[in-house]
From TrEMBL:
Signal peptide location: none
Record protein name field: Acyl-CoA synthetase
Residue ranges occupied by any AMP-binding enzyme C-terminal domain in the UniProt entry: 396-467
GO biological process: fatty acid metabolic process
Domain of life: Bacteria
Protein family: Belongs to the ATP-dependent AMP-binding enzyme family.
Amino acid sequence: MRITESYAVHAKMKPNHIAIIDEQESITYQDWYERVQTSAQWLNETAHHQKRVAFLVSNGASFLQIFAGAACAGWTAVPLDPRWSHEECVEKLLLSEADLVIIEDRYMRRFEKNKVDIPVLSLSEWKERMSPITYVQSNNQDTEEDPAFYMGFTSGSTGSPKAFMRRQQSWIESFRMTASEFGITHQDHVLILGTLLSSHFLYGAISTLYFGGTVTLLEKFVPEKGKTALERGDITAVYTVPTMTESLLQIDAFGDTPLLVISSGADWGISSKKQLVNNYPHITFFDFYGTSELSFVSYLSSTDFLQKPSSVGRPFSTIQVEVRRADQSICQPNETGRIYVKSPMSFSGYLHEEKPPQEWLTVYDMGWLDEDGYLYMSGRENGMIVYGGLNIFPEEIERVLNEQPEVKRSIVIGLPDPYWGEIPVAIIEKAQQTKTIRQAAKEKLAAYKVPKKWLVIDQMIETSGGKIARASMKKWAEDQLACKQS
């Protein structure tokens, strides 16, 4: 089964029901079904080798149409982030080995600097090619295999990007959890607050369409726009991350109609959750822990929060979680170790890595399970920084910094921030000034990856093996910033 197969049923049973509302148009299920089928038909008539289509498109129905059309055709969709620099876009595009790339017209300039040996279509050209196609219904879908339909990007231990693959069945398993645990149905009208480049928000939109509900998209998160959408009174559920929730709380955006809030992507502070529970009794929330590779792992409901405020919840019903010591033995309750997950929703592996994922997977998060089976997080073993729901890998930033002639060595660490969750802080060894280094970071990195604070040290603290002692450097940075604030 494919994630788009239910569209035919929705188009037949309720053709005039609204599927998608973006800032340009409203689309019925009949129209949506035909658009997705037409996109799939066009892809399958296109010359291809890998069956991969990359696209650099902002939030809107076109993004979802390309994504769903690829899934319907058995192709792999490769979304590219407009926030990436030109160099980052080209790097990931080449890594993906896509057969073609569709680029929103306003971003076409980015690909004039370097010639990419991949067919490039502007979004307007793609729309023109869609318009004359007459959809011909076909029952010859290849159902013998579960194709990889989604390629996203993460980072390895060196900071170099890695492409991870997801198969359709993994998302269908996740849809079942969304229905059984969160209670989302075809009757829901779901507001997607954030960018579809985030798998959390993309999943929220695609799962809602699978069920037959209505999706409302914002082109860009603006708190006032979110409030306006919620004040209409027809939104029944909203996908969000903690920084967005904080912004909405500040402007009293949640109204007085029943609402389901589904949050993920970063640590959501206890005080903020209390504010939501106490001030908006008509709201039910689910805060879930998951990753790109693992998908759903655990979830905390607003009811559970009252008893387990510090927990990231209990595992989903189809998930097994173990916390292990370094020797792989199982930790006792309340003992911290590395978190391992066994799941039917996990990813299918990294591109160009022949070994399939193991049955039990870890992303090197550390935590513990209590006596009742609730999971708690104590930190990220690999140092990943979660900035407002966005993952930042220190090694990627360090690689850019270390390329600069003014930099002898650098290290990037994450420090707690009351609004963003964590912020990246750069420490440079023996730098006379950081102005040119900062400018290089702005040119080479997406804006959210650029360090928010900069420190200079005469000599890095090292381990006995001569490597930078990350834990000691983090403590030094905390002390330095504390002194500056006092």
